[in-house]
Amino acid sequence: MTQVRLDVTDGVAVVTLDGPARLNAFSSTTGRELSAAYRTCDADDEVKVVVLTGAGRAFCAGADLSPSADSFGAPGDDFSASPVDPPAFGVRKLVVAAVNGSAIGIGLTLALQCDLRIVAADATLAIPQVRFGMIGDGHSHLTLPRIAGRGVAAEMLLTGRSITGAEAFERGIANRAVPADQVLEQALELAHDVAVNASPASIALSKHILWADLDAPDVERRETAAHRVLMAHPDAQEGAAAWREKRSPRWGFAVSDLPGEPDL
């Protein structure tokens, strides 16, 4: 079964779905291990950015349908159609999906939970569950309309048709579509730049607001509260000083320093 590998270098955590012989098919074990990897990344102040990718030629070909898999059977009381907890959008770090190959079903919905997606231009992407008597999972009815609009979401979720990575970029689902052998390279380049130059606390607070379901007054209130937290910390002066002195900032405000459950 597909396992999950976690490697951290220079502030960037690479989380790899590691089952290339099965195209990184997703099982309950995969979900538990990915949940644990995300929790580790969220809690570790040394991790500034997370990159999610797949081993071999696929990102994730969907649920593991093999007889030995632990993914199927009658759902128990603890069943969830969103089996990764926290989802990527609940991790207080920038999470980039490096979609190096096919992303089908939960493979694509996992990528949609990430903040950014860099995809292989020739990759096959689909949420085909309506063609199997099911519906899209992994918060896809939330993430896809927010990312690409209700029309695109309706086409993907209600027809189950496949698109390429290049089409995903054209439709706003992907941030970039590049040759497959450049996907991880470009994701890591972006991740390392953010890890060095962007404030971890600022990312966490901005992401908290970005993924919340808020109206304009609530956005104003939460942005104002975030500004009060950030402006009271020396990092607000450090960012400006680094820009003036043309050097990398030395951030001191860690995600773990943020107030617990802030009113943001």
Quick description:
The protein is an alpha/beta fold and 264 residues long. It has helices at residues 28-43, 106-112, 140-148, 150-159, 165-170, 183-197, 200-210, 216-231, 235-245, and strands at 3-9, 12-18, 49-54, 58-60, 94-99, 102-104, 116-120, 124-126, 163-164, 176-178.
Provide an overview of this structure.
- With about 260 residues, the chain is of the alpha/beta class.
- The protein has 2 domains: about 5-195, 2-enoyl-CoA Hydratase, Chain A, domain 1 (Alpha-Beta Complex); about 200-255, Lyase 2-enoyl-coa Hydratase, Chain  A, domain 2, CATH 1.10.12.10.
- About 40% of the residues lie in helices and about 15% in strands.
- It has helices at about 30-45, 105-110, 140-150, 150-160, 165-170, 185-195, 200-210, 215-230, 235-245, and strands at about 5-10, 10-20, 50-55, 60, 95-100, 100-105, 115-120, 125, 165, 175-180.
- The strands form 2 sheets. It has a 6-stranded mixed β-sheet, with helices on both faces. A 4-stranded mixed β-sheet has the order 4-6-8-9.
CATH C-level label of the largest domain: Alpha Beta
* CATH architecture name of the largest domain: Alpha-Beta Complex
Q: What's the number of extended β-strand segments?
A: 10
Helix vs. strand class: alpha/beta
CATH topology of the largest domain: 2-enoyl-CoA Hydratase, Chain A, domain 1
Overall pLDDT confidence: 94
Q: What is the helix fraction of residues, given as a range?
A: 25-40%
Taking all Cα atoms into account, the compactness measure Rg is 19 Å
**What is the CA-CA span between the terminal residues?**
40 Å
